[in-house]
Amino acid sequence: GAVVSQHPSWVICKSGTSVKIECRSLDFQATTMFWYRQFPKQSLMLMATSNEGSKATYEQGVEKDKFLINHASLTLSTLTVTSAHPEDSSFYICSAPLDRTVSRQETQYFGPGTRLLVL
Amino acid sequence: SQQGEEDPQALSIQEGENATMNCSYKTSINNLQWYRQNSGRGLVHLILIRSNEREKHSGRLRVTLDTSKKSSSLLITASRAADTASYFCATAPSGGYQKVTFGIGTKLQVIP
C-alpha cells in the first residue's frame, strides 16, 4: 500500500528556534497533503491543506506566519514551526490522500508523526 | 471544529469479547472512515464506508452507517490484546471529499 514518511520522528528544541518537519509520499504522488496537530489524549486537529505548486490553505485559528508550509514537489511537503514556544509542543501528523478520481473515493495515508517538544 | 463524536470515549473489555464504538456527525458526508492509532504513533486506515453504503466488513471489523441518524458504528469481533489502541472516525464532507474531520476518539483497552 501507499506509504507516507515523516522526518524527524522526534525533535527537541529551545524556545525561539524554528523546526522543519518533512512529509513524503514514498510510492505515489500527492498534489495535496494535510497537516494535523494532536495534543495528548485529544483528537487530530486539521491545521492546513498543503497544495503542490500553490499556497497552503489554513484552518481558522492557525497562524500562517507561525506554521509555514511548502509543497515544493509532488512527493514532499514541509511544515516549519517558526519561533517555536512550549505551547507548540505537540504531535504533528501529515497525511496524503490516494485519489481515485473516477469514484471520488479516497483513502488518507498518514505519516508516523513527529513529536515536537519545545523547552 | 470536531465533526465526529465517538462514544464511548473509553472502553475496556476482555480478550475475546466484541467491542462496539459509535460515531455521530453533524453535516452531510461523502464518506466516513475509521482509523486506529497506537499510543504515540501515526494513524492506520481501517475501513471506509461511502454515504450510499449501509454496512461494510473487513476481517474482524464491521462498520455500519446510518445517514438518517448521522451515525456510524465500528464493531471489532473476538478482540485481541493487540487491538488495544485509540479508534477515530473521520468524515469527508460532500463536495470536499479530501478534507476529513476527526472525532475525539475511543480509547479501547483489551485485557488479556
Describe the structure.
The complex is a heterodimer of chains A (119) and B (112). The N and C termini of chain A lie far apart (37 Å). In chain A, strand 7 and strand 8 form a beta hairpin. Chain A has strands at 4-7, 10-13, 19-25, 32-38, 44-51, 57-58, 67-73, 76-81, 90-100, 105-110, 114-118. Chain A contains no helices and 11 strands. Chain A has 119 residues and is mainly beta. Chain A is 0% helix and 56% strand. Chain B has 112 residues and is mainly beta. In chain B, a hairpin with a 2-residue loop joins strand 6 and strand 7 (61-66). The N and C termini of chain B lie far apart (36 Å).
Overview in brief:
Chain A is mainly beta. Chain A has no helices and 11 strands. In chain A, 34% of the residues are buried.
Secondary structure blueprint with pairings:
The complex is a heterodimer of chains A (119) and B (112).
Chain A: E1 4-7, E2 10-13, E3 19-25, E4 32-38, E5 44-51, E6 57-58, E7 67-73, E8 76-81, E9 90-100, E10 105-110, E11 114-118
Parallel strand pairs in A: 2-11
Antiparallel strand pairs in A: 1-3, 3-8, 4-5, 4-9, 5-6, 7-8, 9-10, 9-11
Chain B: E1 5-7, E2 10-14, E3 19-24, E4 29-37, E5 43-50, E6 55-58, E7 61-66, E8 71-76, E9 85-93, E10 101-102, E11 106-111
Parallel strand pairs in B: 2-11
Antiparallel strand pairs in B: 1-3, 3-8, 4-5, 4-9, 6-7, 7-8, 9-10, 9-11
